[in-house]
Amino acid sequence: MAPSAVVRVFVIDPQPIVTTELRTVFAPIGDIDHIGGATSWCTAYPQFSQYPPDVVLLELATTLDDGLELIRHVREYHPDTEVLVFSGEGRRVFAALRAGARGFLLKSANRAELIEAVRRARAGIATVSPELLCQLVAEVQQDGSRPKLSERELEVLRLVATGRRNAEIARGLFVTEATVKTHLQRVFAKLKVKDRGAAVRVAVAAGLLPGHVVQAD
Hints:
The chain is an alpha/beta fold. The chain is about 50% helix and about 15% strand. The chain contains ten helices and six strands. The chain has helices at about 15-25, 40-50, 65-75, 95-100, 110-120, 135-140, 150-160, 165-175, 175-190, 195-205; strands at about 5-10, 30-40, 55-60, 80-85, 105, 125-130. It has a six-stranded parallel sheet with strand order 2-1-3-4-5-6, with helices on both faces. It is globular and about 55 Å long. The protein starts with 6 loop residues before the first strand and ends in a 12-residue tail after the last helix. The mean pLDDT is about 85.
């Protein structure tokens, strides 16, 4: 699906006042449309499913939902929707990125940072609050031994990170598309992810793709 000129944003946060405040933040911004909010996935589902947004701002510390499972659900069943964690606390940064979040922004961020993070999420660019980068590195180190990818798997993943599709990768490596898909399936299994974007984000965070970074404002 081609991205629309206006980024349609939906908020899931257990505190209703957050939705109200964000509506005020986005109201004067011409390219961002706050289309709704809910306190949980259960209450969000009817509106969300009928009119899927471009970006979901999600508070992980919800009382009614497992935030990580919600990220995985959105990535699997609404692949055109990006999830940007917008949280009052910075736990589980790496877990959120691994689950498929496009970024992790603290609620202490100013308006300009939030607006830019939403735009970047829609463009497929990850944003992590600068205050959380040290924690992100620590979480990666504590996650256990770094996943072991073969040289060919790393080669395929590097090409994925540059935006190449399977057919292009196959031509460049002189293999079949089926072979590329097999390599990617193995990469997904080793990194415990379900899609290409999450694989790149986790690989970057784990230091497997030197030269690529999880970008932060």
